Amino acid sequence: MCGRINVSDDPLAQFITDALGIPFHTKTNTDLRPTDPIDVIRCSANQPEQLALNWGYKPHWAKKPLINAQAETVSVKPTFKNAFYHHRCIVPCTGWYEWKADDTGKKQKYLFSDPDNGVVWMAGIFLEGRYLVTLTTKPNGQCEYYHHRMPLLIKQDHLTSWLSPNVESAGALLSMEYEGKLHISGN
Predict the structure, then answer these.
(1) Is the pTM above the cut of 0.85?
(2) Distance CA 187, CA 183 (A)
(3) Given strand 183-186, what is the order of strands in its sheet?
(4) Dist CA 27 CA 90 (whole Å)
(5) Is 127 exposed, middle or buried (0-12, 13-18, 19+ CB in 10 A)?
């Protein structure tokens, strides 16, 4: 699930600056991969701020970096529990990619994005102050054809709840199904 993210600085940076009231700057990367740097939003002193992280966390016991954590268990898994309680973030992007095999077995790449060319707000946590792990959940009806998981997407009016120190508010979002519409295009 979600091993590539699409980030386009224009109009993403301006949209985030306007929506959150903070200066936000990022570089375009339409094929952002695990271990690449990515700009996220966290809350510090009750104010949103930009933070640059590397996507993926590699604990000593893992063979490769962990890029995703399941929303259903993030609050109890030893690897992620502390980050969920204390280090939540939002990953603003212009979309993400999934691959699905067609009838011949050839994999087709699909971009999932906002239908109005706006921001897709993914839920994330960060570990050791520099490693991002995005959260995944069961897919909604629109995404289940393409993959058995999808990013945990946060609606713009719930961003404060996700970023606030109130763990119960954030926890309530872990089980919310994304009801918004997405634009899906094959590459």
Answers:
(1) yes
(2) 13
(3) 29-32, 5-7, 95-101, 107-113, 183-186
(4) 17
(5) buried
